Protein backbone atom coordinates (compact mmCIF):
# COMPACT_ATOMS: atom_id res chain seq x y z
CA UNK A 1 0.00 0.00 0.00
CA UNK A 2 1.54 3.31 -0.97
CA UNK A 3 1.52 6.27 1.34
CA UNK A 4 -1.07 8.93 0.62
CA UNK A 5 -0.82 11.15 3.69
CA UNK A 6 2.41 13.12 3.74
CA UNK A 7 3.80 15.48 6.32
CA UNK A 8 4.07 18.60 4.17
CA UNK A 9 3.36 22.30 4.26
CA UNK A 10 -0.41 22.68 4.15
CA UNK A 11 -1.34 19.26 5.55
CA UNK A 12 -4.25 19.45 7.99
CA UNK A 13 -3.50 17.52 11.15
CA UNK A 14 -5.38 16.47 14.26
CA UNK A 15 -3.60 17.11 17.54
CA UNK A 16 -3.69 13.94 19.64
CA UNK A 17 -1.92 14.86 22.83
CA UNK A 18 -1.30 17.89 24.94
CA UNK A 19 -3.32 20.99 25.78
CA UNK A 20 -4.59 21.32 22.20
CA UNK A 21 -5.65 17.71 21.94
CA UNK A 22 -8.71 17.11 19.81
CA UNK A 23 -8.26 20.24 17.68
CA UNK A 24 -7.16 20.44 14.07
CA UNK A 25 -4.36 22.59 12.68
CA UNK A 26 -2.25 23.04 9.57
CA UNK A 27 1.42 22.29 9.09
CA UNK A 28 3.01 25.61 8.23
CA UNK A 29 6.65 24.50 8.14
CA UNK A 30 8.70 21.42 8.91
CA UNK A 31 11.49 21.82 11.44
CA UNK A 32 13.14 18.45 11.08
CA UNK A 33 12.51 14.70 11.14
CA UNK A 34 10.55 14.81 14.37
CA UNK A 35 8.84 18.16 14.63
CA UNK A 36 6.87 20.65 12.61
CA UNK A 37 5.45 24.11 13.03
CA UNK A 38 1.66 24.13 13.13
CA UNK A 39 -0.87 26.93 13.15
CA UNK A 40 -4.65 26.70 13.61
CA UNK A 41 -5.34 29.19 12.12
CA UNK A 42 -5.91 30.45 15.62
CA UNK A 43 -9.18 32.21 14.88
CA UNK A 44 -10.76 29.13 13.34
CA UNK A 45 -9.53 26.19 15.38
CA UNK A 46 -7.98 27.77 18.46
CA UNK A 47 -4.51 26.27 17.98
CA UNK A 48 -1.75 28.86 18.35
CA UNK A 49 1.34 28.75 16.19
CA UNK A 50 3.75 26.33 17.83
CA UNK A 51 6.32 23.64 17.26
CA UNK A 52 4.90 20.19 17.88
CA UNK A 53 6.45 16.74 17.47
CA UNK A 54 4.91 14.37 14.92
CA UNK A 55 4.26 11.90 17.72
CA UNK A 56 1.57 14.24 19.03
CA UNK A 57 -0.34 14.67 15.80
CA UNK A 58 -2.22 12.55 13.29
CA UNK A 59 -2.18 13.42 9.60
CA UNK A 60 -5.56 13.76 7.90
CA UNK A 61 -6.43 13.47 4.24
CA UNK A 62 -7.04 17.17 3.86
CA UNK A 63 -4.52 19.71 2.62
CA UNK A 64 -4.58 23.44 2.14
CA UNK A 65 -2.71 25.31 -0.57
CA UNK A 66 -0.29 27.57 1.25
CA UNK A 67 3.30 28.62 0.98
CA UNK A 68 5.73 27.65 3.69
CA UNK A 69 5.53 30.00 6.71
CA UNK A 70 2.20 31.43 5.63
CA UNK A 71 0.96 34.30 7.75
CA UNK A 72 -2.17 33.83 9.81
CA UNK A 73 -4.19 36.00 7.43
CA UNK A 74 -3.10 34.03 4.34
CA UNK A 75 -3.79 30.77 6.14
CA UNK A 76 -7.28 31.88 7.10
CA UNK A 77 -8.02 32.91 3.52
CA UNK A 78 -6.76 29.57 2.20
CA UNK A 79 -8.94 27.72 4.71
CA UNK A 80 -11.98 29.74 3.71
CA UNK A 81 -11.30 29.08 0.03
CA UNK A 82 -10.86 25.35 0.50
CA UNK A 83 -13.77 25.21 2.96
CA UNK A 84 -11.55 23.00 5.09
CA UNK A 85 -13.48 23.21 8.34
CA UNK A 86 -16.70 21.97 6.75
CA UNK A 87 -14.83 19.30 4.79
CA UNK A 88 -13.32 18.08 8.06
CA UNK A 89 -16.66 18.05 9.90
CA UNK A 90 -18.12 15.98 7.05
CA UNK A 91 -15.51 13.22 7.33
CA UNK A 92 -16.51 10.10 9.22
CA UNK A 93 -13.38 10.55 11.38
CA UNK A 94 -14.64 13.88 12.68
CA UNK A 95 -18.14 12.51 13.12
CA UNK A 96 -16.87 9.60 15.17
CA UNK A 97 -14.86 11.95 17.37
CA UNK A 98 -17.94 14.14 17.85
CA UNK A 99 -20.08 11.12 18.72
CA UNK A 100 -17.52 9.94 21.28
CA UNK A 101 -17.45 13.38 22.83
CA UNK A 102 -21.22 13.53 22.98
CA UNK A 103 -21.44 10.11 24.55
CA UNK A 104 -18.91 11.08 27.21
CA UNK A 105 -20.88 14.20 28.09
CA UNK A 106 -24.29 12.56 28.49
CA UNK A 107 -26.18 13.05 31.71
CA UNK A 108 -27.95 10.23 33.47
CA UNK A 109 -31.27 11.27 31.95
CA UNK A 110 -29.70 11.27 28.48
CA UNK A 111 -28.39 7.77 29.08
CA UNK A 112 -31.88 6.73 30.11
CA UNK A 113 -33.23 8.14 26.88
CA UNK A 114 -30.57 6.23 24.94
CA UNK A 115 -31.57 3.02 26.70
CA UNK A 116 -35.24 3.53 25.85
CA UNK A 117 -34.40 4.35 22.23
CA UNK A 118 -32.25 1.21 21.94
CA UNK A 119 -35.08 -0.91 23.30
CA UNK A 120 -37.53 0.62 20.83
CA UNK A 121 -35.11 0.01 17.97
CA UNK A 122 -34.57 -3.64 18.84
CA UNK A 123 -38.33 -4.13 19.28
CA UNK A 124 -38.92 -2.88 15.71
CA UNK A 125 -36.13 -5.12 14.37
CA UNK A 126 -37.44 -8.17 16.25
CA UNK A 127 -40.95 -7.67 14.91
CA UNK A 128 -39.62 -7.35 11.34
CA UNK A 129 -37.48 -10.46 11.74
CA UNK A 130 -40.55 -12.37 12.94
CA UNK A 131 -42.51 -11.25 9.88
CA UNK A 132 -39.69 -12.31 7.54
CA UNK A 133 -39.26 -15.66 9.24
CA UNK A 134 -42.95 -16.49 8.97
CA UNK B 1 30.09 24.59 34.98
CA UNK B 2 27.12 25.13 32.72
CA UNK B 3 24.23 22.92 33.66
CA UNK B 4 22.31 21.55 30.76
CA UNK B 5 18.67 22.30 30.24
CA UNK B 6 16.73 24.87 28.32
CA UNK B 7 19.25 27.54 27.43
CA UNK B 8 18.59 31.25 27.52
CA UNK B 9 20.60 34.01 25.94
CA UNK B 10 22.04 36.76 28.09
CA UNK B 11 23.99 39.90 27.34
CA UNK B 12 26.44 40.45 30.17
CA UNK B 13 28.40 43.66 30.46
CA UNK B 14 31.20 44.02 32.95
CA UNK B 15 34.37 45.92 33.65
CA UNK B 16 37.23 46.13 36.04
CA UNK B 17 36.39 48.01 39.21
CA UNK B 18 36.97 51.75 39.01
CA UNK B 19 40.07 52.98 40.88
CA UNK B 20 41.55 56.39 41.48
CA UNK B 21 44.06 56.17 38.59
CA UNK B 22 41.57 54.46 36.27
CA UNK B 23 38.18 55.93 37.10
CA UNK B 24 36.58 54.77 33.85
CA UNK B 25 37.81 51.34 32.82
CA UNK B 26 36.72 49.83 29.52
CA UNK B 27 33.52 47.83 29.67
CA UNK B 28 33.25 44.47 27.94
CA UNK B 29 30.13 42.89 26.61
CA UNK B 30 29.52 39.19 26.04
CA UNK B 31 26.62 37.15 24.82
CA UNK B 32 26.35 34.06 27.01
CA UNK B 33 24.08 31.02 26.73
CA UNK B 34 23.05 29.77 30.16
CA UNK B 35 19.96 28.41 31.89
CA UNK B 36 19.75 31.35 34.29
CA UNK B 37 21.39 34.72 34.92
CA UNK B 38 23.49 33.42 37.82
CA UNK B 39 25.30 30.94 35.60
CA UNK B 40 25.45 33.54 32.85
CA UNK B 41 27.38 35.93 35.07
CA UNK B 42 29.64 33.15 36.25
CA UNK B 43 30.38 32.19 32.65
CA UNK B 44 31.07 35.81 31.85
CA UNK B 45 33.89 35.92 34.38
CA UNK B 46 35.13 32.52 33.20
CA UNK B 47 35.65 33.85 29.69
CA UNK B 48 36.65 37.37 30.62
CA UNK B 49 39.52 36.33 32.86
CA UNK B 50 40.84 34.22 29.99
CA UNK B 51 40.76 37.20 27.64
CA UNK B 52 41.63 40.12 29.87
CA UNK B 53 43.23 40.62 33.23
CA UNK B 54 40.10 40.84 35.33
CA UNK B 55 38.11 38.56 37.54
CA UNK B 56 35.02 38.58 39.68
CA UNK B 57 36.73 39.98 42.74
CA UNK B 58 38.50 42.76 40.84
CA UNK B 59 35.57 43.62 38.59
CA UNK B 60 31.91 44.39 38.54
CA UNK B 61 29.05 43.33 36.34
CA UNK B 62 27.22 46.33 35.02
CA UNK B 63 24.35 44.60 33.31
CA UNK B 64 22.92 41.14 32.70
CA UNK B 65 19.82 41.17 30.57
CA UNK B 66 18.06 38.35 28.75
CA UNK B 67 17.90 38.51 24.97
CA UNK B 68 14.63 37.09 23.68
CA UNK B 69 14.09 35.86 20.18
CA UNK B 70 12.81 38.51 17.85
CA UNK B 71 10.62 36.20 15.78
CA UNK B 72 9.76 32.75 17.08
CA UNK B 73 7.16 32.07 14.43
CA UNK B 74 9.46 30.98 11.62
CA UNK B 75 11.90 28.11 11.44
CA UNK B 76 15.48 29.22 10.88
CA UNK B 77 18.72 27.43 10.20
CA UNK B 78 21.37 28.12 12.83
CA UNK B 79 25.07 27.51 12.36
CA UNK B 80 27.02 27.19 15.59
CA UNK B 81 30.79 27.23 15.85
CA UNK B 82 32.02 25.66 19.03
CA UNK B 83 35.08 24.39 20.77
CA UNK B 84 34.88 21.32 22.95
CA UNK B 85 37.23 19.04 24.81
CA UNK B 86 37.03 15.35 24.21
CA UNK B 87 38.88 12.67 26.14
CA UNK B 88 41.95 13.05 23.96
CA UNK B 89 42.14 16.72 23.08
CA UNK B 90 40.15 19.84 22.31
CA UNK B 91 38.62 20.44 18.90
CA UNK B 92 36.71 23.01 16.92
CA UNK B 93 33.42 22.10 15.42
CA UNK B 94 30.70 23.57 13.28
CA UNK B 95 27.17 22.26 13.60
CA UNK B 96 23.87 23.26 12.09
CA UNK B 97 20.42 23.09 13.63
CA UNK B 98 16.96 23.98 12.48
CA UNK B 99 14.84 25.61 15.12
CA UNK B 100 12.43 28.39 15.82
CA UNK B 101 14.71 30.15 18.32
CA UNK B 102 18.46 30.49 18.69
CA UNK B 103 18.24 29.31 22.29
CA UNK B 104 16.35 26.24 21.06
CA UNK B 105 19.15 25.48 18.63
CA UNK B 106 21.74 25.91 21.38
CA UNK B 107 19.81 23.56 23.69
CA UNK B 108 19.72 21.07 20.82
CA UNK B 109 23.46 21.51 20.44
CA UNK B 110 24.18 20.63 24.06
CA UNK B 111 21.92 17.59 23.89
CA UNK B 112 23.44 16.40 20.63
CA UNK B 113 27.02 16.88 21.82
CA UNK B 114 26.18 14.88 24.91
CA UNK B 115 24.58 12.15 22.85
CA UNK B 116 27.03 11.86 20.00
CA UNK B 117 30.31 12.74 21.68
CA UNK B 118 29.65 12.11 25.39
CA UNK B 119 30.64 15.73 25.86
CA UNK B 120 29.43 17.43 29.03
CA UNK B 121 28.15 21.02 28.93
CA UNK B 122 31.15 22.20 30.92
CA UNK B 123 33.45 21.14 28.09
CA UNK B 124 31.63 23.13 25.44
CA UNK B 125 32.44 26.73 24.54
CA UNK B 126 30.27 28.40 21.97
CA UNK B 127 32.41 30.60 19.78
CA UNK B 128 29.87 32.01 17.38
CA UNK B 129 26.30 31.54 16.26
CA UNK B 130 24.68 32.73 13.07
CA UNK B 131 21.49 32.37 11.12
CA UNK B 132 22.26 30.59 7.88
CA UNK B 133 20.27 30.86 4.68
CA UNK B 134 18.97 27.65 3.19
CA UNK B 135 21.42 27.69 0.29
CA UNK B 136 24.44 28.22 2.54
CA UNK B 137 23.81 25.15 4.67
CA UNK B 138 26.70 22.72 4.82
CA UNK B 139 25.22 19.71 6.58
CA UNK B 140 22.91 17.36 4.70
CA UNK B 141 20.39 16.83 7.51
CA UNK B 142 19.25 20.43 7.65
CA UNK B 143 19.53 20.82 3.89
CA UNK B 144 16.90 18.20 3.23
CA UNK B 145 14.33 19.92 5.43
CA UNK B 146 15.13 23.44 4.31
CA UNK B 147 14.35 22.51 0.72
CA UNK B 148 11.15 23.78 -0.83
CA UNK B 149 8.37 21.28 -1.19
CA UNK B 150 9.73 18.86 1.36
CA UNK B 151 7.31 16.09 2.14
CA UNK B 152 7.54 12.66 3.66
CA UNK B 153 5.13 10.09 5.07
CA UNK B 154 5.14 8.99 8.68
CA UNK B 155 5.72 5.27 8.36
CA UNK B 156 5.37 2.67 11.11
CA UNK B 157 3.71 4.88 13.68
CA UNK B 158 4.18 3.42 17.10
CA UNK B 159 2.29 5.15 19.85
CA UNK B 160 4.45 5.58 22.91
CA UNK B 161 3.15 3.49 25.76
CA UNK B 162 5.20 5.40 28.30
CA UNK B 163 3.91 8.88 27.77
CA UNK B 164 0.83 9.76 29.77
CA UNK B 165 0.54 6.06 30.65
CA UNK B 166 -1.39 5.72 27.44
CA UNK B 167 -1.28 2.03 26.64
CA UNK B 168 -0.94 0.70 23.11
CA UNK B 169 -4.52 -0.49 23.48
CA UNK B 170 -7.43 0.16 25.76
CA UNK B 171 -7.41 -3.24 27.42
CA UNK B 172 -4.56 -4.99 29.20
CA UNK B 173 -4.75 -8.07 27.03
CA UNK B 174 -5.58 -8.26 23.36
CA UNK B 175 -5.42 -10.83 20.61
CA UNK B 176 -4.90 -8.34 17.81
CA UNK B 177 -1.62 -6.67 16.90
CA UNK B 178 -1.85 -2.88 16.88
CA UNK B 179 -1.93 -1.16 13.54
CA UNK B 180 1.01 1.07 12.65
CA UNK B 181 -0.05 2.14 9.16
CA UNK B 182 -2.04 5.35 9.11
CA UNK B 183 -1.76 6.28 5.45
How many strand elements of chain A? Answer: 6
Name the quaternary structure: heterodimer
End-to-end C-alpha gap of chain B: 47 Å
The proportion of residues forming helix of chain A, as a percent range, comes to: 40-55%
Q: Evaluate the radius of gyration of chain B.
A: 22 Å
End-to-end separation of chain A in angstroms reads 47 Å
Shape of chain A: elongated
Task: Please work out how many helical segments of chain A DSSP would assign.
Answer: 5
Count of discrete alpha- or pi-helical segments spanning 4 or more residues of chain B: 3
Largest sheet of chain A: 5 strands, antiparallel
Number of strands of chain B: 7
Uncertain spans of chain A: none
Along the chain, the helix and strand elements of chain A come as EEEEHEEHHHH
Q: Given the helix and strand composition of chain B, which structural class is it?
A: alpha+beta
What do you see in this structure?
The complex is a heterodimer of chains A (134) and B (183). In chain A, strand 3 and strand 4 form a beta hairpin. The longest helix of chain A is centred in the C-terminal third of the chain and has 26 residues, at 108-133. The mean pLDDT of chain A is 94. The radius of gyration of chain A is 20 Å and the shape is elongated. By secondary structure, chain A is an alpha+beta fold. Chain A is built from five helices and six strands; from the N terminus they run ββββαββαααα. With 183 residues, chain B is α+β, with helices and mostly antiparallel strands. The mean pLDDT of chain B is 91. Chains A and B meet through strand 1 and strand 6 of A and helix 3 and strand 7 of B.
Amino acid sequence: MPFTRYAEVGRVVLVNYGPESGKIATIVDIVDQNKCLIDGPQDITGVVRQVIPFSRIALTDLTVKIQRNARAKTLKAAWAEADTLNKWEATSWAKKLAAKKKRASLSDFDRFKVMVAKKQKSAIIAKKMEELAA
Amino acid sequence: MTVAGVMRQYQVVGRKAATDDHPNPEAYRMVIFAPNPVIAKSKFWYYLHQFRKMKKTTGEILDCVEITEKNCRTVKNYGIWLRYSSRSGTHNMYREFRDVKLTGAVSQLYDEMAGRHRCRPRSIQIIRTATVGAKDLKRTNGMQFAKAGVKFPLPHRVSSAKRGQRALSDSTYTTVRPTTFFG
